[in-house]
Task: inverse folding
């Protein structure tokens, strides 16, 4: 449940401290190399990645088919890598960043396709499928910008909504 709060706070504070940043001209990772925003952005991604990993482990405990949760755990490690290896690490940053987005989408799609053992799994699986399709569908129309920050946000926002909803449901199911 805290994952979206940490990520959005980190991004918001990083953007607020970076008057040069524009959604249509930059990538979000540009915030990780500028002196005034690097600390906030990079540590936000690292902490967010650890929270996502904890969330994925929780999913492993409650889902009958755990493959999607394992893929989300790998996505979490990639998000940690985004913070550990800013754009100045060039290839390593590109690999971790691309892995994060790809694994996030695949993990949610796998959960959507393999769910169905009980009402909870069917509900979160259907929600995962719908949100991933919305995210992927909307990003097709966003590639005309010079930067990719808008596209990155549209890819992640539905996943963060899903994590918030599932995190709340997991809290009430297990606690």
Result:
């Amino acid at each position: 449940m805290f994952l979206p709060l940490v990520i959005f706070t980190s991004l918001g504070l990083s953007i607020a401290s970076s008057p040069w940043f524009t959604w249509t001209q930059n990538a979000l990772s540009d915030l990780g190399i500028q002196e005034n925003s690097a600390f906030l952005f990079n540590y936000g991604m690292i902490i967010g990645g650890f929270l996502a990993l904890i969330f994925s482990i929780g999913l492993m405990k409650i889902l009958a088919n755990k493959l999607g949760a394992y893929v989300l755990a790998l996505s979490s490690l990639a998000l940690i890598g985004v913070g550990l290896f800013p754009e100045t690490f060039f290839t390593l940053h590109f690999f971790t960043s691309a892995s994060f987005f790809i694994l996030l989408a695949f993990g949610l799609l796998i959960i959507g396709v393999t769910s169905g053992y009980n009402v909870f799994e069917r509900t979160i699986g259907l929600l995962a499928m719908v949100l991933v399709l919305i995210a992927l569908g909307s990003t097709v129309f966003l590639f005309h910008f010079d930067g990719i920050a808008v596209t990155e946000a549209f890819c992640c926002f539905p996943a963060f909504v899903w994590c918030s909803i599932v995190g709340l449901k997991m809290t009430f199911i297990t606690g």
About this structure: The mean pLDDT is 90. The radius of gyration is 16 Å.
